[in-house]
Amino acid sequence: MSEALIVIDVQNDFCPGGALAVPDGDAVVPKINAMLADYPIRVFTQDWHPAGHLSFASEHPGFHPYSVTEMPYGSQVLWPDHCVQGTPGAEFHPELRVDSANLIIRKGFRREIDSYSAFFENDKTTPTGLEGYLRGHKIERLRLVGLATDFCVLYTALDAARLGFDVTVAMDACRAIDLQGSLEDAEESMIEAGVILAAH
Questions:
Q1: Percent of all residues in the chain with a pLDDT value above 90, rounded to a whole number
Q2: Of 57, 63, 167, 188, whose CB count within 10 A is highest?
Q3: Residue 147 and residue 174 in contact, taking contact as beta carbons nearer than 8 Å
C-alpha cells in the first residue's frame, strides 16, 4: 500500500514568536524534513485566513482569545488573528522543505467557517479536495505530522480514519497547544478512532 505524508500547518504564526505560537512548534521542522524522502506523496496544509475571519476573537466584541462561541456549525474556539493571507505569519516556516510538496492544501479561506481538518471544513461536510487527490494516487495509508496535535492534526486524523484510511500520527513530529487538557483528550479520541500514535 502506498503511504502519503501529510504535513499540517507548519507556519510562522504557529511557531515561537508567531501570533498563535504552539510551544516548541519549530522543533518539528528538522524531524519532518528528515521524513520527506521516505514518502512518494507529500501533502502540505496551510491555514489561509482572510482578514476578519469569524474564528478570530477580534471579530467578536466582548470575547477574548481562546474563549468559545457558537457558530452555525457548532462550537468554535476564538483565536488570536493568525495566518492571514499574504502575511509573513501565514508563510511556511523558512526551514521547512516546501519544495518537496506534491500538493499544498489551503484551508480556512472562507470568512464564515473555520477549517481544522485537511479533509473538511468545520461543518464536516465541505470538502477540501484532499480525499479525491489521495484516492486518485491509490493512497491507503497516511502518516500525519505538524501543528497542532490537539486541533488540526486531531481533526485530520479523525476524518481520515472515518474515510477509511489507515492513519498513523508521528507524535514526535507534532506539537500541541494543550488548552485545558486538550492534548490528552485528543490522544484518547484518536486511539478510539483506530489511529496509531507512533514515536516516528
A1: 96
A2: 167
A3: yes
* Assigned C-alpha cell, 122: 468545520
Give which of 195, 134, 151, 162 is closest to 5, Cα–Cα. 134
- Residue 30's Cβ-side half-sphere holds a number of Cα atoms within 13 Å equal to 2
C-alpha cell of residue 138:
491509490
Active site amino acids: 9, 107, 152
Who's near 139: CB < 8 A, 6+ residues apart?
Answer: 2, 3, 4, 41, 165
Dist. CA 147–CA 87, nearest whole Å: 19
Average pLDDT estimate for 56-78: 95
pLDDT tens across 71-85, in order? 999 999 999 999 999
Residue burial 148-187, b: 16+ Cβ < 10 Å; e: rest:
bbbbbbbbbbbbbbeeebbbbbbbebbbbbbeeebbeebb
Cis peptide preceding 148, ω within 30 of 0 = yes
Q: H helices of 102-146, where?
A: 130-136
Residue carrying the nine cell digits 493568525: 82
pTM of the predicted model as reported, rounded to 2 decimal places:
0.96
> Residue 55 contacts by C-beta under 8 Å, 6 or more apart in sequence?
49, 76, 77, 78, 79, 108, 114
